[in-house]
Amino acid sequence: MGRTARSCMQSLMKAMNLIMGMVGIAMILYAFWMARVWQRDSQDSSSSHHHHHSPSPWFIYTFLGIGVTFCLITCLGHIAAGTANGFCLYCYMAILCLVLLLETGMAADIVLNSDWEKDLPEDPTGRFHDFKEFVESNFDVFKWIGLLIILAQGTAILLGMSLRALGPNRASDYDSDDEYTHSRVPLINPQVQQLPAYVIGDPRFVDKNDDPVKPAPFGWNV
């Protein structure tokens, strides 16, 4: 029963990690696409202007960094769920808690601060503005995606705490090793049972040439 519950929690934790991994891969692919488009546009603009200098495309780098971070967290969570190692689970939960705090802070800043865009540097690619308009036009879809990501992260933290409380996996596949000890001993070392439990003393050997002295019968003279 314990092994079944552990296996179910491990599979569910891997599924939650898979959601974050898919989001991270999608963000990486989108960042590569934005970088390719920005590079093409920058080459066209530099050919028409002799001196062209633009600031760093921070939005593309940020998007790419978040996607890579999600993928790394997914790999760590998969290893922690498979091994149920206490140190791996602790690191995984600590990182997820930090990510949740950052996400909560960003969401609170966007909701409470109406001028949050002014705190960001200028985006030379223009992709930040396009992405913002795309999110606003599909706000319901992105709202459910955000809730799904937060739910997956919270569930993964709870599952990690449960696995850490249960401890690491058992090396034996049996419920009790004592039940199968006696049946495995002859296969491992069949000579063990042939040895005596204890030895009383050294064995005594009698030479056949030396006849033992027998007492004379009563009334006989030797």
Description:
This is Tetraspanin. It comes from Acer yangbiense. The chain has helices at about 1-50, 60-85, 85-110, 125-135, 140-165, 180-190. It has about 220 residues and is mainly α. The protein has a domain at about 1-45 and about 60-115 and about 125-165. Helix 1 (about 1-50) crosses helix 5 (about 140-165) and helix 2 packs antiparallel against helix 3 (about 85-110). The longest helix is centred in the first third of the chain and has 47 residues, at about 1-50. The N and C termini lie far apart (about 85 Å).
Structural class by sheet pairing and helices: mainly alpha
Number of helices: 6
Share of helix among residues? Answer: 55-70%
- The run of helices and strands is HHHHHH
Any low-confidence stretches, pLDDT <50, length ≥5? 171-185
Largest sheet: none
The general outline is: elongated
- State the distance separating the first and last CA atoms: 85 Å
Q: Let me know the number of strands.
A: 0
Proportion in β-strands: under 5%
Q: What's the alpha carbon Rg, rounded to whole Å?
A: 37 Å
Keywords: Membrane, Transmembrane, Transmembrane helix
Membrane topology: Multi-pass membrane protein
Subcellular location: Membrane
InterPro entries: Tetraspanin/Peripherin
Topology of this structure?
Blueprint: H1 2-48, H2 58-83, H3 86-112, H4 127-137, H5 139-166, H6 181-188
Helix pairs in contact: 1-2, 1-5, 2-3, 3-5
Transmembrane segments: 12-38, 58-80, 87-108, 141-161
Subcellular location: Membrane
InterPro entries: Tetraspanin/Peripherin
